[in-house]
Amino acid sequence: MTIKVxxxxxxxxxxxxxxxxxxxxxxxxxxxxxxxxxxxxxxxxKALFANFYLDGWPTLAWSCGFDYSPESLYERATGKQxxxxxxxxxxxx
Length: 93
Fold this sequence. Notes:
Elements: E1 5-12, E2 15-20, E3 25-29, H1 31-36, H2 46-49, E4 53-54, E5 60-61, E6 67-68, H3 70-78
Antiparallel strand pairs: 1-2, 2-3, 4-5, 5-6
């Protein structure tokens, strides 16, 4: 199943409530993400952070060019791992 963000609502700080196409919902705090990705740094301005939209995937996106994968959002919001999304361990020949 492809994970998609069905609804999103800004809460406060760097927290967003999400509902997914699976019917599951949860809250994500993206504070750590803003420091990890240079393109996300403008979003430290909470007014800009709160001004997200759902793009064509759909997932959260911002006008500065930053978006965050729906699979990663799902894992953060629900605490469940998407098994097909996790990196596979390297195999030795």
